[in-house]
Amino acid sequence: MAPQLAVDRHARYFRMCLSGLPQQMTSLDAARMTFVQLSLVGLAALGRLDEMVAAGERAQMVEWIYGQQVLGDGSADCAAYCGFRGGSLFGPHDLCDNVAANSGNVAATYSALCALLLLGDDLARVDGAAIVRALRLLQQESGCFAPHPGTTERDPRFVYCACAISAILGDWSGVDRDAAVAYIVSCSNPDGGMTQAPFHESHGGHVYCCVASLALMGRLDALPDRARTLRWALQRLGAGYQGRVNKPPDSCYAFWVGAAVEILGGHDLVDPSAVDAFLMQCETRFGGIAKWPDAHPDPLHAALGVVGFGFCHPDDLPRMSPTLLLPAALAERLPTANR
Amino acid sequence: MSQQEEWKDVVPIPQDDGKNPVCPIAYTDEYREMTDYFRAVMASGEVSQRALKLSGRVIDANAAHYTAWVYRKKLVLDLGVDISEELAWVAEISGRHIKNYQLWHHREALLELLLDPKQVALEPQDQRMRNPDIRRELQFIDRVIDQDSKNFHAWSHRQWVVRAYGLWDQEMAFVDTQINQDVRNNSAWNQRYFALTRNQAADAFVLTKEAADAEIAYVIDKIKLAPNNESPWSYILGLLLRHAPAMLYEDLLPSINALASDKNGALAVVSTPFYWSALVDIYEKQAEVLDAEQRDAVKGLAREACESLAEQYDPVRAKYWKYRKQELTAQ
Predict the structure, then answer these.
(1) pLDDT value of residue B331
(2) Residue A79 pLDDT > 90, yes or no?
(3) I need a surface site. Which of A201, B110, B114, B256 has the fewest CB within 10 A?
(4) Total number of domains constituting chain A
(5) Signal sequence span per UniProt (chain B) (predicted)?
């Protein structure tokens, strides 16, 4: 019999996360939107979203998400702050003399758009023009992206968010694609992996962001050595996927690395039993998947673990897009998303 | 806070989470109160010592609060906060948030304010190494790496410091120490490439024969210590593939063969997947420059190595090695 995840238990876990997170997760407060997205992704990847979230409640969730949209006032001063913020921790929307206090963030914008699509929203109330304008202001000379104004943070995570946002909105005018591709290429490590910045260590999360960004831009051909990048990703699989050379396995890399393998065409080269065995060790008694065996679950590892498991069992679970973290059927309906 | 004289004049702004919040977090009363006041001071853009202190409390409770970091940086500048004191504050909270990106970026921004890289670059390097601020920064990184030798942020930050202040002369010695402490520390092996190339772009860096030979000898030495260790194998293959591909078969191959036939260590080396997969890479590269007859022979060796990997030494990647073998047949 094919290995199976405890689908019911995990569905209840994601459902519980949508209803509330424990006090220990206060450190996720600024990224609540991402945990909303991941809880919905988890349910969708298990094929339980419709069943666990009733239509009326979906409409309420859609309202909460739109409540996080930073609309700006059309002025140049506000333009870079537009998009979605990470949660209601920021704000308020109306009282701000200090526009920087209530800032959107490309990661939250990406999460919000995915969450809205998962909830069946048509994005009609999304101010796409403002979002695309903000992206244009957040792209750096290097081609990389900052997540929001006022920070020196910039790395492939935000390039990925910018690409995913553009693909979802079907508007690439906020991204200088040649510059973004050049930045990604500069992040290739000689070992075949991809990095946060030139000369940094290859890392499964950045491999995903770089490879998925190139795929969304239709530029996978720009990878300096695609075969070697695929090899690097496949090489991460031992007793589960690890994120870096000589590091212990971690359930989230079943997605980060597993999805990169899918995008690079390596699906048939993976031994699913090695992926399964580790993820099943990370399943927890009351639902959810932890980072490691015997640890506490969290929505990120749970959702990414389920999606990673699904890549190995495409006939048993709903097919998910490796480039957008949406159900494949939904991703395929998007205007310009490549695959 | 509502009872404190200091905050009497501030009207807190409660969080507006709407009628039906999604993923609400069960905040402590303390967190809720401090963020209510924090929203108020941030909304007005207040520049004050109390705002600075409050931003510190909020960041310590929730280090991913991205606008709090932006606000704090502005407060540091506008209040003329002593940068060394601010660096000390970052160090103080760093133990609890060592994997937080913003903390490390804040530190970089502070260092740039304290020590202008352009000015420092004018000094001789031994003088730079004696600069108390640079020494303190390197010691801070050392402490983090001592606790977690593979901390991604600490290594990234170290690259930034070395590059910004031009501290190249000592970097290889640091890398050696780290590799000697843990020969499996891939972060240290990665730093070796950074130190060797001194941050030069792939097409600008010239790997001399002498330097490449030294790296091969170094790697062979470390493989002897722990043959089943991906890091040195992947380091040397990556280095030569990128900068001196002919040396793969002219120099690295004989060294590996010598290692594999060494009476004492042979068994340990030839039973690792890394030995066999290195052979696949090397033979494949060599085949590109040979005439037809020799090419077939070398490809045959590569196919045999793939077979050994699939059947015996790397079963988890059996499908991959069979695919590689097939590709070597088809070419």
Answers:
(1) 59
(2) yes
(3) B114
(4) 1
(5) none
Q: What is the CA radius of gyration of chain B?
A: 27
Q: pLDDT band for position A14 (50/70/90)?
A: very high
d(CA A125, CA A107): 19
The residue from B53, B73, B74, B99 that is catalytic is B99
Q: How far is the CA of A110 from the CAs of A58, A69, A85, A267, B16, in angstroms?
A: 19, 12, 10, 26, 22
E strand or H helix at A70: strand A69-70
In this complex, the residue of B70, B201, B319 whose CB is nearest that of residue A100 is B70
Q: Is the pLDDT of residue B29 over 80?
A: yes
In this prediction, residue A98 carries a pLDDT of 83
Q: Measured between CB atoms, does B326 come within 8 Å of chain A?
A: no
Q: What is the pLDDT of residue A1?
A: 61
Mean pLDDT, rounded, for A20-41: 96
For the domain that residue A145 is a member of, what is the CATH number?
1.50.10.20
Residue of A19, A23, A26 best to disrupt the B interface, most CBs of B under 10 A: A26
Is B242 in the A-facing interface, judged by CB distances under 8 Å? yes
Query: In A, which residues are within 8 Å of B318 by CB distance?
Result: 271
Domain membership of residue A1 (yes or no) is: no
**What percent of chain B lies above the pLDDT cut of 90?**
92
Q: Is residue A88 part of a domain?
A: yes
pLDDT over 60 (residue B111):
yes
Domain contains A3 = no
The nearest alpha carbon in chain A to B316 belongs to: A271
In a domain, A130, yes or no: yes
Where residue A70 falls (left for φ over 0; alpha for ψ -120 to 50; beta otherwise) is beta
The torsion region of residue A294 among left (phi > 0), alpha (psi -120 to 50) and beta comes to: left
Q: Do A30 and B66 touch (CB under 8 A)?
A: yes
**Interface contact B105-A151, CB threshold 8 A:** yes
First to last CA, chain B: 74
Nearest CA among B43, B36, B29 for reference residue B14: B36
Strands (E), A221-295: 237-238, 240-241
pLDDT digits (tens, 9 = 90+) for B122-145: 898 889 989 999 999 999 999 999
B50 to each of A89, B54, B103, B301, how far by Cα in Å? Answer: 20, 6, 20, 71
Helices (H), B168-208: 171-181, 186-197
Q: What is chain A's mean pLDDT, rounded?
A: 95
Q: pLDDT tens, B208-267?
A: 999 999 999 999 999 999 999 999 999 999 999 999 999 999 999 999 999 998 877 667
- Closest residue in B to A56 (Cα–Cα): B20
Residues of A in contact with B14 (CB under 8 A): none
B277-316 burial, b at 16+ Cβ within 10 Å, e below that, comes to bbbbbbbbbbbeeeeeeebeebbebbbebbebbbeebbeb
Pairing between β-strand A237-238 and β-strand A240-241 as defined by DSSP bridges:
antiparallel
**Average pLDDT, integer, range A108-114:** 98
How would residue A338 be classed by pLDDT, with cut points 50, 70 and 90? very low
For A186-196, b/e burial (b = at least 16 CB within 10 A) is bbbbbbbbbbb
Chain A residues in contact with B186 (beta carbon < 8 A): 201, 244-247
| Residue B89 predicted with pLDDT over 80 | yes
Number of A to B CB contacts under 8 A, please give it: 208
The yes-or-no answer on residue B99 being catalytic is: yes
pTM: 0.97
Q: Do A61 and B64 touch (CB under 8 A)?
A: no
The whole domain housing A113 covers 8-17+29-331
Q: Are B206 and B196 in contact (CB under 8 A)?
A: no
Give me the residues paired with residue A188 across strands: A194
- Tell which of A34, A95, A245, A267 to mutate to test the B interface (max B CBs under 10 Å): A245
